Each structure stands twice: as C-alpha cells, then as structure tokens.
Amino acid sequence: MSEIKSKRLILRQPVLDDAKFLAKGLGDKEVAEYLTVPHPYNLEMAQEWLKQDFVNKSANETSFIVEKKDKTFIGGIGFNERNNVTFLFYWIAKQYWGQGFASEATLAVIEWFFNVSGEDIIFAGAFHFNEASIKIQQNLGFENIGQTNRFCPARNKQVKNIETRLNRKTFLRIKTV
C-alpha cells in the first residue's frame, strides 16, 4: 500500500500504534452519531481492527489513517466492499471538523482509487442529517441514487441514509474544472 499525499494531509497505512487515536476519535459520541461503527468504541475494538493485514488488501478493501503533515492524527478513510460494490467511507475527529480535511482526503483517496483499480464506480452515503458529508459527495460529483435505512449504534436506531454513486468519468471531469 502506498502513502497518499495532498496539500495538507498524509493518508497512510494503519498500524497498531494508531489504536488509542482510533478509540478516542471513534469513541466520541458526536462523531459516532454520523457513522455505523459500534458505540461505545473502545481501545480493544480498535486494536482488534488494526490486527488485520492492510498491506495485501485490494483497492476496494483499503483503509488509510488521515494525518496532517505534522503527523497529527485526524481521522480515517478508505473503501470496503459490500455485495460486490465498492463503498467509500471517511470520518474526521470532531476538533478538525469544518476545516476542509474531509474534502481534501476524499478527493485524494478517490483519485488514488481510480488510478490503481479497474473500477469505474464508487458508492458512498451519509445519514440524512449529515449535511457536510452530503455536500462533500456532491462537490466531488456523486449523484443521489436513493435512500435506505441503516442502523446507527450511537443513536441506537435505524436512520435514513442518502445513497450516492460516483463514476470515473464524472470525477475526472469535475476534478479538472
């Protein structure tokens, strides 16, 4: 797995030493309320997740730690496969919200994905109240393809989820504008 660099960020392979930062970031209820991660998320969960082999994963099963260039941990991003389609996921620790880090990381990881994979489509989504994430996806060319309900452990209920899709051609057109 290669490291991805953008103007302010480094996206790198997760390592076991990231466990306490993952547990703190994903353990924050305000962050978890926008995600489908278990809640409360603790150190043992982070350590268990970090034990997997990140090096030999395919592009559609790749995870990155998002750091500022000064090595400050700020979140996570990557892809997972469900039902033979690739889904983008991302999250940023609360103290870094509203600074454009999610947009920057998402742009970088999507560009990487389209460069290293043969895939032409990426799916994503966001809970209906996550206006910032929906805006990020729209700005990158994702189109709304419908709604589903997904369980949010931090809220302990089903939540309306806006489903989106991005194709390679749309992304390349928007990226060059």
Q: Mind summarizing the main beta sheet? A: 5 strands, antiparallel
- The figure for the number of domains is 1
Give the CA-CA distance, first to last residue: 29 Å
The fold-level CATH name is Aminopeptidase
How much is the average pLDDT? 95
- Which structural class should the secondary elements be placed in? alpha+beta
Number of strands: 8
State which percent range the strand residues make up.
25-35%
Radius of gyration: 15 Å
List the total number of helices: 6
Question: Could you list the spans in which at least 5 consecutive residues all have pLDDT below 50?
Answer: none
Which CATH architecture?
3-Layer(aba) Sandwich
Listing every helix as H and every strand as E from the N terminus to the C terminus, the arrangement reads EEHHHEEEHEHEEH
Any overview of this molecule?
The chain is an alpha+beta fold and 177 residues long. The chain has one domain (4-175): Gcn5-related N-acetyltransferase (GNAT) (Aminopeptidase). Helices cover 31% and strands 33% of the residues. It is built from six helices and eight strands; from the N terminus they run ββαααβββαβαββα. A five-stranded antiparallel sheet has the order 1-2-3-4-5, sandwiched between helices. A three-stranded antiparallel sheet has the order 6-8-7. Helix 1 packs across helix 3 (43-50). The longest helix has 16 residues, at 101-116. The protein is globular and about 40 Å long. The mean pLDDT is 95.
